[in-house]
Every structure is written in structure tokens, then in C-alpha cells.
Amino acid sequence: MSKPLAVIGRLQYDAHTRIIDVETGYTMDQVVEACLAPAVGYQARHPKPGATLLVRPTTDTDDAEPFPRTMTVEEAGLRHFQQIDVFVPKDQ
Q1: What is the separation of C-alpha 1 from the centre of its chain, rounded to a whole number of angstroms?
Q2: Which Pfam families does this one have (predicted)?
Q3: Burial 49-71 (b: 16+ CB within 10 A, else e)
Q4: Considering the entire predicted model, what is its pTM?
Q5: How would DSSP label each residue in 41-84?
Q6: pLDDT tens profile 24-52
Q7: Domain ranges of the chain
Q8: What are phi and psi of 38, to 5 degrees?
Q9: Which of 14, 15, 32, 56 could be stapled to 66 by a disulfide with Cβ–Cβ 3.0 to 4.6 Å?
Q10: Looking at domain 4-87, which of 3.40.1650.10, 3.40.50.300, 2.30.110.10, 3.10.20.270 is its CATH number?
């Protein structure tokens, strides 16, 4: 059963972080959509329109491996208020 969880989303090239409500059953693609919804068109732009965005845990060096797009929040082991990055991979 999916449960609500709040994460702190950091969208590439955006100066703001946002608390994003997700469900533990969301895939990473759904997490991306949840992170884009309150930002793009309001305070931010899509980092690269048409490019696929990925999710990774936030690290000091911004080099963590992205989660697979079909992985769920629960499978990723994300915790309440954990910070995540939503970004365009370098090959796009």
C-alpha cells in the first residue's frame, strides 16, 4: 500500500528547493512530474525542454548515481524530507 511522503526537490538550474508530496508507490518518472508541477512556469523553467529528467539523492559533489526511472520511492529507500535532485543527464 502506497503511503504519502514529503521530499525536498531541487530542480537543475533553479535557485529554490521545494517540499514535494509524493507517494511511496510513485516511480521516479512520477517524482519528476511532482517536482516540476509547482516550479515550471511559475518560478523556474524546464532545465532542457524535451530532455528526460532523472532523480538522484543530493550529495555535496552532485555525482550520485540516478535512480532507475521505473524504481519506486519505496524501492529507492527515500526518507521523509530527504533532498533529491531532478536533473538532465550529461548525455542529453
Answers
A1: 21
A2: TmoB
A3: eeeebbbbbeeeeeeeebbeeeb
A4: 0.90
A5: TTTB--SSTTSPPEEEE--TTS-PPPPPTT-BHHHHT--TT-EE
A6: 999 999 999 999 887 876 677 677 788 89
A7: 4-87
A8: -85, 0
A9: 56
A10: 3.10.20.270
